[in-house]
Sequence to fold (238 residues):
Amino acid sequence: MYRKLCNKFVKHPETKTVVWILPCLDFEIVYELQKKILQDKIANPGFPDLFLLTSHPACYTLGRASSQLEKETVYPFPSFEIERGGHLTFHHTEQVILYPLLTLKAPDVHAHLKRVLNWGQATLAALGISSSLDGQGSGLWLDGSKKVASVGIAVKRWVSYHGLAINVSVDESMWQNLPVGVHPCSLPNAIPTNLCDISPTLTRQDVEWALIEILKEDETLHPIQFENIRIFGDDDVY
Fold:
């Protein structure tokens, strides 16, 4: 499926930004998909910027800053060491996860990180939820100590990958059942929280569509084309 979807980018190049709305997929499937897109964007300057909008079954990812303890720990769900910045974070079916695969116009990784967070903050604001970037670490915070979204990015040849995860209604066992001494984002005093704790009727789909509207309004992006992809499995990434 990946090659079929991308062939039109090569045959009919045009200036646009594409958003692929994916179903909930295993982390490793989307990780492989990101690596394929990254490779194609580096090889072909005409390849469009892409956003992947998805969620994952319960798992943990460990960024480049993860400690040896974090790497050696046996977790209650699958774990993956990856090349994004940061420490341990968790993923869940009731998260909204955005992976921007963008060619950065300026060699400023921190500016890109802030832009990704701003998309998340504007999304929450559109839903009537006030959040801050000023917490104990990178992410979105409620009341300064409750972390509602995590961010972690990587950049290769000035193409970004990895991204933002917003907690909508994540099972609290994801952070409550961690071994002693291991904490999400390596922040023992941070309190992971869900948007549904603030707005009980909010759904993951509500957050996804609010995020899509924010991306559509961003004038720094090319005109956005949306593609709702209902099936994307192991055999589709090659």
Observations:
- The chain has one domain: 2-236.
- The longest helix spans residues 109-126.
